[in-house]
Amino acid sequence: MNKYLKHLPITLSFYVALSFYGCTSYGDNKTTGSFFNSRGMKMYYEVYGSGQPLLLIHGNGGSISTFKNLIPFYALKYKVIVADGRSQGRSSDIHDSLSFEMMADDYDALLDHLQIDSADVIGWSDGGIVALLMAMRHPRKTKKIVASGPNLWPDSTAVRPDEWLAEVKEFDSLKNTPKTTDQEKEKWKLLLLDLRQPDISPGSLKNIKCPAMIIGGDHDLIRTRHLELISKNIPLANLWIVPHCGHATLFEHKYKFLYNTDKFLTGNFRKDRVF
Questions:
Q1: CATH number for the domain harbouring residue 214
Q2: Does some domain include residue 167?
C-alpha cells in the first residue's frame, strides 16, 4: 500500500475529501438526492463534485452507499453521479421483469435527465456488466469504462463453481415460496437476474469502441480466464488482476483501486499498460 500512498494525490487529497464529504449520508442525502421517472419507475440518484462526469454503478442488491468510501476522493476532481439501480435501494420497481439491458438504459436516461452528453463509467460486479452494456448500447454516452468483476454469461465456466452452486441452492430453496411483499418480489427478481443473465457473446464486445479497464481479484468469484476473455475481445482494453484479492476489489484494496482507476481515466490509453 505504501507504493500507492507515496504517489497519490490520494495521500493528501483523500483526507481533504473526507473533510468535505466524510460526514455525508450517501444514499440518503436530502441536499443533493432526487428522483426522476425512468421508464415506469422512480430512480433515486445523488450528485457530488464538479468536473468530468463520472457515473458509479453498484452491484446486485447494492445501493449508492456501496461507494461511500470512494465518492469523497472522486468528487474532488469529477462530477460524481451515483444512483440506486432498478429494484434496489430506493429505486423500487413494481414490474415483474428485470434485465441488465434495462439497467443500462436507465443510466442512459439518467444522464439525459442531467443533461450530460457523455461520462466515464465505473461499475462493480453486476455494475460492471451494466458498464459493458452501456458502452455497447449507448456508445456516445461512454467515454471510458471501468468494469470490476463482470461476467458475460451465468454458469460455472464464468463464475467460480462453489459460488454458482450456492446461487442455485438459494433458488431451489425459494422457488416455491410465495413472494407477497415488494421486498420479497425484488429479492427474487435480483436472484433470477444473476441466475439467467447476462447473455453477452465475446464477439459482441468488439462493438465497444471506448477504452476499457477490466478488473478482477486473483481470488475473484469471476474466473480469471473469463476476465481475460472479456479483456481480449475489447479492442481498447487493459486488464488488471489484483493480487491477494477477492471479488470486492474496491473494498479490499481501496487505495490501489482509487489510484489505478484515476490513472486510467485521466491518462492516455496504452494497450500495453500494466497496473
A1: 3.40.50.1820
A2: yes
Whole-Å CA distances, 27 to 14, 57, 124, 165, 214: 20, 13, 17, 32, 26
Three-state DSSP class for residue 33: coil
Lookup: cell for 218: 486473483
Average the pLDDT over each of 58-67, 137-146, 171-180, 220-229 and give the range with the smallest value: 171-180
**How far apart are alpha carbons 133 and 152 in whole angstroms?**
10
* Residue 222: φ, ψ to 5°: -90, 130
- pLDDT at 153 > cutoff 80: yes
Structural domain for 83, as ranges: 2-266
- Is pTM beyond 0.70? Reply is yes
Residue (of 59, 217, 56) closest to 127 by Cα position:
59
**Which pLDDT does position 274 carry in this prediction?**
84
